Amino acid sequence: MYNIQTLNKIAACGTDLLDKSKYAVSDDAANPDAILVRSASMHEMELGSNLLAIARAGAGVNNIPIDKCSEKGIVVFNTPGANANAVKELVIAGLLLSSRKIPASMEWIKTLKGKGDEVGKLVEKGKSQFVGPEIMGKKLGVIGLGAIGILVANAAAELGMEVYGADPFLSVENALKLSGKVHYVKSNKEIFEKCDYITLHVPALPDTKGMINEEAIASMKKTVRLLNFSRDSLVDEKAILNALANGGMACYVTDFATDALIGVDGVIALPHLGASTPESEDNCAVMAVKEIVDYIENGNIKNSVNLPNVEMSITGNAKICVIHKNSEGLLNNITAPVSAAGMNIENMVSKSKKDYAYTCLDVKGDVSGIEASLKAVAGVVAVRVIK
User: Fold this and answer.
1) Per-residue confidence (pLDDT) for residue 205, from 0 to 100
2) Which residues contact 160 (CB under 8 A, 6 or more apart)?
3) Any residues with CB less than 8 A from the CB of 184 and at least 6 apart, and which?
4) 316 neighbors 364 (Cβ within 8 angstroms)
5) What pLDDT digit, counting tens, does each position of 58-95 carry?
6) What is the CATH number of domain 307-387?
7) Cα separations (Å) of 120 from 100, 104, 107, 111?
8) How far is residue 311's CA from residue 313's CA, in Å, rounded to a whole number?
9) Class of the 84-269 domain?
């Protein structure tokens, strides 16, 4: 029986996929084999000796201590694309909100309460203060063409916008999904200089922190409308506020409200609504549970943020799964004890991701004692034998 701990409420359509004869699910499991989490911070948590995997029901994993997990051989999964449509729809709403001054007009309408028959005339008299441009025909820059960026770019193109997309790490799979109407450009600089609207869809990394700063804003049009539904750390908040105050930016729409942004003219701050749809929560829960089950039962890894994707079927009588440092010559030290124990390696897959690697050996023979032998190899972090 495997114990699965939930740190947040996980949609039942996901947890119901867990075979009750194999898995026990609770929010207080002691020393769990796997953890399902959404937004709860795990940085201060003790990671138990049984913990094999953590699945984040969402894309961002800044609430999980990735380095610590890697050192302990714990696979960390996320669910890329599961909430992509929800975020895409909110970004499209953000484009319209930023253009047509809809939030301000709705607040103004409330001031007319109690005016009786005068409301109609007052509306006609006051509506000119909320005039804003249409998005059709305007230039939109999409920075980051992952699961969400692709959907935003394609949808905006269908709405008649002239769309430019930039992503130096654009995958072949995503390139095939990108509409032929979208102009692919090689640098963010071209987007900064050319576009009327810019939307951010890149992960929070050391290289992307503060990517929207004073220098970047200075190269943009003074009428630019910037949308951030990705991560708050991507923008230099002070630079945004200065630009809005000094006429260097028309509007900033963000899903990450802070005290400094609330109530500022030109800022539309939302309470992190990007993935807040029942459909998105269901999709994330289902994907997270499937990732956990496939890893626990089959040793397969898909959508991990700290280890490579590896899938391999068992044709022999066991599958030996080894998480290890990505070190030169280490693979020979892993296969040597297997061969010395008289096992035949039917198939092998080994892939690396930055400092760590994952090797799966499909073997025939007696596997008793091999787990201990492999754990004794320098550079090996974790070993499992699946029969």
Assistant:
1) 86
2) 135, 136, 137
3) 164, 165, 166, 170, 178
4) yes
5) 888 989 999 999 999 999 999 999 999 999 999 999 99
6) 3.30.70.260
7) 20, 18, 16, 13
8) 7
9) alpha beta
Domain ranges of the chain: 1-82+278-306, 84-269, 307-387
Tell me the pLDDT tens digit for each residue of 127-140: 999 999 999 999 99
Q: Model-level pTM? A: 0.83
Are 228 and 234 contacting, i.e. CB atoms less than 8 angstroms apart?
yes
CATH 3.40.50.720 fits 1-82+278-306, yes or no: yes
What CA–CA distance (Å, rounded) separates 110 from 91? 26
Please state which of the ranges 191-195, 205-209, 348-352 shows the lowest mean pLDDT: 205-209
Handedness of CA 28, 30, 34, 40 (dihedral sign): positive
User: Treating both helix axes as pointing N-terminal to C-terminal, what angle do 147-158 and 84-100 enclose, rounded to 10 degrees?
Assistant: 50
Of 101, 100, 102, 122, which Cα lies nearest the Cα of 111? 122
Quickly tell me which residue has 């023979």 as its tokens: 365
